[in-house]
Sequence to fold (477 residues):
Amino acid sequence: MKQTSFYLVTDNHYVSRKVWVEGKPFTHRERGDQIALKATPEILDTFLEKILADETTDTVIFTGDNVNNGDMASHYEFRERLERLTAAGKKAYVITATHDYCGAGDDENGFSACRYTETGTEPTEFMRKAELLDFYFDYGPKQALSLHRESGSYVVQLGEGVRLAMICDNGNGRSHCGLFEDGTAWLREQIRAAKAAGEYILLATHHPVLPPWDVFEKAAPHELYGGNREMRQLMCEENVRVIFTGHTHVQNIRKYTDSEGRWFLNIATIALVNAAGKMRRVTVDPDAGVCDVRSVGFERINGLDTGDRTAYEYLHALNFPGILEDLLPLAVSDYEAFLSLAEGFLPVDQLRKHKTAVRTLCKKLQKMKLSTAAKFGSGWKNMSPEQREYAKKEPLQNAIFGVLRHIYPGNPPYGPDTAEYQAVLGIARKLDRYVRRFRIEKVQSLIPEGSSLEEMAKDFLYNTRTGDDDAIRFDLK
Ligand SMILES: [Fe+2]
Ligand SMILES: [Fe+2]
Fold:
């Protein structure tokens, strides 16, 4: 049988130029986020051009949050991109998620579509949840082997010997993002039908079935797939090896193994419009029963002037994780510029009032070395002489920003043999003692049974998961 490959794009949060103009309202809206908004058309088009240029791959799947705010202008322009793909001979399969519609009544989801003017916002035409299936019918439901109308989920033939279940979990707003009983029964039937035909089946949905890190499940359980425990069980029982997800905007590959040793992978993909945005390229070899997953990023964004910064640096500086890196030196060198950059996501009035204190604090933080953090915790005594020498010279801010920079793209670089690892875990150990001694329940409630802050911190220092958040090759059998 022939190999099959497809691209996966998720969380492209498309924003039409028709729903914003340059001005503080939209600039500030983008600042407080962790994804680019203004450049979403250019970013999507850059990736689509890569897809169109790849003659060996004829399928593209989109796993939700296709537009940012449910407005119709963005939906029409996104659908034009889908038409461009199909006109070029590609197959495009779409599911939708909570950002793709605006709630009213029983599908209330808290979003309201608007147009950003120079001074504020005004309402604009929006998509309702019940209209989504028809609007995107040509992109998946129409080609489906089976369609579950109630949820908008469907199964398509991906290629020889392999099917794909696109599970639409846009649910009832934010209260339940997953299939209901009837939908789950339909999914089980579909899995069994694929098996009976001697074919593999892959799953894709928007919300993750496994959290990217342990703390996520405790801190934000509602951000997981609704009914994730049942889904884990179903996948193990039915021997389904993989579910592709989006939503967290985090690049992350995790394995779940149940008490009987049955397992599956949750392959979560970073938002396309993150500064380090990527799509996945997945290849299935049905004869060998092997699935190979890689990631494709960008070096430049076509049609976007990024000045003397790389595309990554330019986009990184737009949102709060990157703005913090620019704010720290500005607080010391140019306080007015600092305030103007902080506007929109930090309390500027307070910062203006406490100028001296803020400047002093930022100056101190800028000068602080990694060794200070290591000595504050218990990391210093675990460091080798070389690590101590390094820590005495290395600015602490590099480690802080280094960790922040890897939250969304995954694969953080501070493994057990680094000074950063010792310093951070030393602090976490100290905090663990405080939390236990003073019974700080708010923190204790975030720690899974048998774990600790020290254990949880490792997820953010190096890859504690399958070894690489960007790529994996696994058995489908
Ligand atoms: Fe999203
Ligand atoms: Fe989402």
Observations:
- Residues 319-366 form one domain.
